[in-house]
Amino acid sequence: MKNLRTIILFAFHCTLFTATAQVGAPYIHDPSTIVECDGKYFTFGTGGGGLISDDGWTWRSGGVRPGGGAAPDAMKIGNRYLVIYGATGGGLFGNHNGRILTMWNNTLDPESPNFKYTEAIEVASSDGMEDCDAIDPSLLLDPTTGRLWATYGTYWGSIRLIELDPKTGERVKGNVEQDVAIDCEATDLIYRDGWYYLLGTHGTCCDGVNSTYNIIVGRSKSVTGPYYDNVGRDMLKGGGRMVINAGDRVTGPGHFGRTVIDEGVEIMSCHYEADFDMSGRSVLGIRPLLWKNGWPYAGDRFHDGTYEIESERRGYSLELGVNFVRIEQQRQGGFRRVDPNEPVKPIPDQQLADVVSTWPTGEIAVRCSDYMFRPHQHWTISAVPEAGGFLGGPYCKITIAGTDRALAATENLELTTVPQFNGSDEQLWRIEQLIDGTYRIMPKRIPGQKAINTKYVIYSAGDSTPTLAEYDFNSDNSKWNLKRR
Amino acid sequence: MKTLNLMFMLGFPLAVTAQNPIIHNQFAADPTARVFNNRVYVYPSHDIVPPEGARQDWFCMGDYHVFSSENLTDWVDHGVFLDQKDVQWGNPTGFSMWAPDCVEKNGTYYFYFPNGSRIGRGFAIGVATAKSPEGPFTCEPEPIKGISGIDPCVLMDNDGQSYIYWSGMGIRGAKLKSNMKEVDGELQTMTMPQRPGGNAPEGAAPRTFTVAGQNMEGLPDGFKEGPFVFRRGDWYYLTFPWVRGDTSNGANPTETLAYAMSKNPLGPWDFKGIIMAEHANHCWTNHHSIIEYKGQWYLFYHHNDFSPRDDKRRSPCIDKISFRPDGTIVEVKPTMRGVGVSPATSRIDVDRYSEASKDVTTDYVDTLNYFRGFYASLPSKTSWLRYGDVDFSGLSADDYLSVSVKASANTELLLHEGGPKGKIIARVPITVVSQMGNFRRDMSGRWLTLTAPLQYIPKGVADLCVTGDSLSIDWVQFKNRRDYFTPITSPTARPDDEGFIRRWMLLEPIDNPEANSNLLFSWTYLQDNLLNPSKLPKPLPAMPRDGQKVKYGKQSLIWHAMESNSYNVRLFRFADLLQKATYRVCFWAVTAIDCPEDIPNVRLAAGSNGASMWWIEPAEGRTAENDNPVLTLESDRRMVADDGMSPRLTLKKGRNIIRCAVVNGPGLSDFCVRFVDEKGNPVTNFEIKN
Question: Tens of pLDDT along A309-324?
Answer without folding.
Answer: 999 999 999 999 999 9
